[in-house]
Amino acid sequence: MKMVLLYNINGKKAIDIKLICHKLRVPFAVVSEGEYGYKLSQVLGLSSENSCDEGESFTEEMLYIYNLTDYELDKFLSQLRRKKATVSLKAAATETNLSYNSYELYKEISAEHKAMQNGENLHNQT
Fold first, then answer.
1. Is the CB of residue 62 less than 8 Å from the CB of residue 106?
2. What is the mean pLDDT of the chain?
3. CA distances in angstroms from 125 to 32, 45, 115, listed in the order given
4. What is the DSSP letter of 33?
5. Distant-in-sequence contacts of 30-36, Cβ < 8 A, 24+ apart
6. Residue 82: what pLDDT?
7. Runs of H (alpha helix) within the chain
8. What residue ranges of the chain have pLDDT lower than 70?
9. Helix/strand/coil (H/E/C) assignment for every residue in 42-60
């Protein structure tokens, strides 16, 4: 199963991203604010767990990309750039972040994005 999750993306950009997904035969889902507390594995339908955590809402655009091949991911990202439908906050699924809820994912990737903009390393590597 492959999937692209869209957060807070509306208007022409949302249409463009959905068309790109359709063209690449990659399913997509628009995640509503009421689903932000569910683990990403639940939102993707990978888990039957039914727990929902509270968290702060966010309004920034975000994409979560699950299980695309390298080729599909490259095509998807190049099509986003070509259509000028870029989204600053993007994440690909990992074993770790599948256990995050959308609030936690947002906090993590927005902090990483800010650190990259400032030329910093968010996570210390030793």
1. yes
2. 91
3. 35, 33, 14
4. G
5. 30/5, 30/6, 31/5, 31/6, 31/7, 31/64, 31/102, 33/57, 35/102, 36/101, 36/102, 36/103
6. 96
7. 11-24, 40-43, 70-82, 102-117
8. 122-126
9. HHCCCCCCCCECCCCCCCC
